[in-house]
Amino acid sequence: MAVASSDESLQNEPIAETAGHGGYILFYDADCCLCTVLRNWVHRLDWSRRIRSVPLGSSQADPHLGDLGRDQRFGSMHIIGPDGRRSSGGSALLRLLEALPMGYGPSRLIANRSVGRAAAENVYNLLVRIRDGLAR
User: Fold this and answer.
1) Where are the domains positioned within the chain?
2) Which residues are CB-neighbours of 113 under 8 A, at least 6 positions away?
3) Is 81 left (phi over 0), alpha (psi -120 to 50) or beta?
4) What's residue 32's pLDDT?
5) Judging by DSSP bridges, how do beta strands 51-55 and 78-80 pair with one another?
6) How far, in Å, CA of 37 to CA of 20, rounded?
7) Is pTM, for the whole model, over 0.85?
8) 3-state secondary structure labels for all residues of the chain
9) Nearest of 35, 33, 29, 16 to residue 73 by alpha carbon
10) In this structure, what are the phi and psi dihedrals at residue 29, rounded to the nearest 5 degrees?
11) Could you read off the pLDDT of 33-59 as tens digits, one per residue?
12) Alpha-carbon distance 122 to 25, whole Å?
């Protein structure tokens, strides 16, 4: 896996610092090729370096995802925003868009409409189906 050196520096930051200072924590499945590719794209788009990524199965994820069962934990993407709220699935996709430069406005427009939230869930479910298809 080719990861930019900026990703390595993000991996070494303490989670508390990132979450407590306007940052987001993206939890992803490091064993999933599609998930890793998408995570790498997120870091390339995140030129403000507000997003830190943590593998779902890591001990760093435990304090934030420890209340989830294995199926829930590995069944979807999760993100924690600067406010400490955890979002999963399609709503996590919207939080991720919010974290990206110039993504806040579009994410709010989408999230504030029921059709937008449903579209986000549909896009996320499509990504899950692609992921599951590639895993076979």
Assistant:
1) 5-135
2) none
3) beta
4) 85
5) unpaired
6) 26
7) no
8) CCCCHHHHHHHCCCHHHHHHCCCEEEEECCCCHHHHHHHHHHHHHCCCCCEEEEECCCCCCHHHHCCCCHHHHHHCCEEECCCCCEEEHHHHHHHHHHHCCCCHHHHHHHHCCHHHHHHHHHHHHHHHHHHHHHHC
9) 29
10) -85, 105
11) 888 888 999 999 999 899 999 999 999
12) 23
Please tell me the distance from the alpha carbon of residue 80 to that of residue 92, in angstroms, as a whole number.
Answer: 8
| Architecture of the 5-135 domain | 3-Layer(aba) Sandwich (3.40)
- The whole-angstrom separation of Cα 94 and Cα 43 is 16
